UniProtKB/TrEMBL annotation:
<dbReference type="Pfam" id="PF16566">
    <property type="entry name" value="CREPT"/>
</dbReference>
<dbReference type="InterPro" id="IPR006569">
    <property type="entry name" value="CID_dom"/>
</dbReference>
<protein>
    <submittedName>
        <fullName>Regulation of nuclear pre-mRNA domain-containing protein 1B</fullName>
    </submittedName>
</protein>
<dbReference type="GO" id="GO:0000993">
    <property type="term" value="F:RNA polymerase II complex binding"/>
</dbReference>
<dbReference type="Pfam" id="PF04818">
    <property type="entry name" value="CID"/>
</dbReference>
<dbReference type="InterPro" id="IPR032337">
    <property type="entry name" value="RPRD1A/B_C"/>
</dbReference>
<dbReference type="InterPro" id="IPR008942">
    <property type="entry name" value="ENTH_VHS"/>
</dbReference>
<dbReference type="GO" id="GO:0031124">
    <property type="term" value="P:mRNA 3'-end processing"/>
</dbReference>
Amino acid sequence: MSGFSDAALEKKLAELNNSQQSIQTLSLWLIHHRKHHASIVKIWLKEFTKAKDSRKLTFIYLVNDVIQNSRKKGPEFRDQFGPILGPALKLMGQAVNDENTQKRLERILNIWGDRNMFDSKQISEFRKSLELCFKRRFDNGEPPVKMSRRDRGETLENVKENREQEDPDKNKKERRKSECNEVIQFDKEGKKEVHITLSPKLPANDAPEPEELIKALQTLENAASSDGIVRKKITELPSEVSDVSLLSKISDQTQAEALTCKVNEAVELLNDYNGRLLKEMEDRKSVTKMLHEFTAAQKELLIQAEERLQEYKEKLCKVYQVREELRSHVSSLPDLSQLPDVSAVPLPSAGDLFSLR
């Protein structure tokens, strides 16, 4: 994957179009370079402001894809985009007088709210920014315009892809069924090619990649509960740091100061270890969830594979039946070698055919 730079991002945003492939490709690239999230959001806002009105919705789809697909890796993009989405949506509401675009934006806001991508206060602010601009334009005598797909530069494929960009997790079961028989058509050197996908499709949920799951499991190998060195230090702490009854044995200030120093060291050690244990608990909960999602995804893939296997077994049986019927039909045909030789019989002439009798 190419390296990150401001110029590279500006070029990619300039080349961005409203196809699902274009949006997802750039989204994956941004998530890969999420450590540059501050620069990414700053450049996105600059290019969004400069973009033509017809392209602004595509920029919103990109943000939607990035936020939804990066939420398991960290909140960086959500936190960075949150403060600027209000002004961005307000700018879009001022520039776009299109009923279809308004409905799509409202749908994205509903998805963000349903999935807790942003808190309810932020969603309300986003919605107010849009509603205020659309209402103001309506009050000024500019009712929403219903634009045709051609006016928006869309094709039927774009419409389907845009719906998937708005809600990539919707109707998972229906999408799994359709993807099992997916036919991909594209032009290559002027020729249309048709490719049928035979392999099971990954479920359209948040199931982790195997590499991501392996990395999470490896992290637990160095968890606090397996840190024998620190646990040994804790067991070797002097009894006076935890036994209040021993305080009566302190006879002077020197002993008190020495005990205070030991207690402070013990508190620091225990606080650090407890913090690590707390983090380990959260990590284990996360890994448990990942394992559950991964197992569910694999079970779904297994179901797809079994369905596909059964489907092609049935097709194979039909092919065998056709083959047997064809063999039976061929065997029932007359043997041409047993027919009488008619080559010696002369064919009638044209005059014989048309002669009157």
